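Our preliminary data section would be incomplete without showing what the modeling component actually yields. Below, a chain of 157 amino acids is followed by its predicted structure, encoded as tokens that our downstream tools consume directly.
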Amino acid sequence: MKNALLIACLALGFLPSCRKDSVNMQSLDLQPHGIPVTIMAPDSAVIQEKDYNFMRDITVKKGDQFFIQIFEFAAPKQDAAGEKLRQLTAVQEDPFFREVIKEEDQGFIFSKMADSTTLDYDFRYVRILGEKELIFQTGLVGSFSLEDVKLMYNAVK
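Predicted structure:
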């Protein structure tokens, strides 16, 4: 029965809609964690916070395919597009960087080589909220498919 469902999803081109974690996406208000932002996340996602004085690190995680890391800094320049370009430059200078898959004013999706045989995907998305700069990306631990990253990227826009 499971094989028949998978084959039907592949045949119809609806594999993303058959993903268990995308079915239960819902609005998640991060205001209780000090960030006046609402993102989309799977039902029962776990939120963790760490405060390092110079920045805060907030993670939203559910399973192995949904892991968003949010870094919060003071925003001295208040320029999301400029910070996105700084993030893009830093990513492109990484020796594991391969290519930009999608680029928009405030964010981008890119590929990188996780090891000599594995292509991995990541994203950056920048928001400026008053005196705060938020940088969204995939969690620092894990390997993510392009489908996973597109879901997370769209969840924070």
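The mean pLDDT is 86. Residues 109 and 150 are 8 Å apart (CA to CA). Preliminary results of this kind motivate Aim 1 of the renewal.
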